[in-house]
Automatic annotation (TrEMBL):
Required cofactor names: Mg(2+)
GO BP terms: glycerophospholipid biosynthetic process
Superkingdom in the source lineage: Bacteria
Keyword annotations of the record: Lipid biosynthesis, Lipid metabolism, Magnesium, Metal-binding, Phospholipid biosynthesis, Phospholipid metabolism, Transferase
EC number assigned by the record: 2.5.1.41
Transferase as UniProt keyword: yes
Catalytic activity entry: sn-glycerol 1-phosphate + (2E,6E,10E)-geranylgeranyl diphosphate = sn-3-O-(geranylgeranyl)glycerol 1-phosphate + diphosphate
Protein name per UniProt: Geranylgeranylglyceryl phosphate synthase
Organism: Subsaximicrobium wynnwilliamsii
Gene Ontology terms: cellular component: cytoplasm
Length: 242
């Protein structure tokens, strides 16, 4: 997945990941949902949530694998969401926060699951930016997002992730956020980064998606907008023949 993403980025191609929260998607609904996803410009399916019931993730991924050709990428809120059935794992460290449990604690606990796993493991620096109201990721991780006005700190945090050897930066305002990451923050972070940039949180319109791409996001993640209004898929249809 990572090699393919790097190749796409080198060609200036943008990606869209549809995020599915296993707690909100019944296995029986997967086939119809995948059909809608695959009619759009989506390039990836991400699976995860801040809190997910134990054992909800693996059956969902197996159903997704049965019906979808897109890469299935874990975006786990905790170690319990790691399943070998997926194609890849964003091995996240919450580098915008100071809670050791999400910087390194969950990662250590994940090792017994990962040591002999065939999952593609992608080290990912996860950065939470303030959006105006607390999101569940903020509550669950008990960390403060970086203030929007501290744009240099946000860029320095992303760069620190790169210098630590992370392969991706995931910059977001949290699922269900009122506001997405502002385009000026995306472009400021991107101009100093030599690894792909994922952007997510609070993107609900085609305009916001295009603004994120234009500002420098390589891959944009959208979850809530599809959960709330499946007609949003119609606005992101891929061109015929693509
Ligand atoms: C959450 O970036 C994702 O981590 C997607 O956010 O659900 O607000 O689209 P939304």
């Amino acid at each position: 997945m990572y090699k393919h993403l790097i190749e796409r980025v080198a060609k200036g191609k943008k990606g869209l990941a549809v995020l599915i929260d296993p707690d909100k998607m019944a296995v029986g609904a997967v086939e119809a949902f995948v059909e809608k996803v695959e009619s759009t410009i989506a390039t990836h399916i991400f699976v995860g949530g801040s809190t997910v019931a134990p054992d909800a993730t693996a059956p969902l991924i197996l159903a997704l694998k049965a019906f979808s050709k897109l890469p299935i990428v874990l975006f786990p809120g905790d170690v319990g969401q790691i399943s070998n059935a997926a194609d890849a794992l964003l091995f996240l460290s919450l580098i915008s926060g100071n809670n050791p449990e999400y910087l390194i604690g969950q990662q250590v606990k994940a090792v017994p699951k990962l040591r002999n796993s065939k999952l593609e493991i992608i080290p990912t620096g996860y950065i939470l930016v303030e959006n105006g109201k607390p999101t569940s990721v903020e509550k669950v991780t008990r960390t403060k997002p970086l203030p929007r006005k501290e744009i240099q700190t946000i860029a320095d945090t992303a760069k620190a992730g790169e210098l630590l050897g992370m392969h991706l930066i995931y910059l977001e305002t949290g699922s269900g956020a009122t506001h997405p990451v502002p385009p000026e923050i995306i472009s400021f972070v991107k101009q100093d980064l030599n690894i792909p940039l994922i952007v997510g949180g609070g993107i609900k319109t085609k305009k916001q998606l295009d603004e994120a791409f234009e500002a420098g996001a390589d891959l944009v993640v959208i979850g809530t907008a599809f959960e709330e209004d499946e007609s949003f898929f119609l606005k992101l249809k891929k061109e015929p023949g693509v």
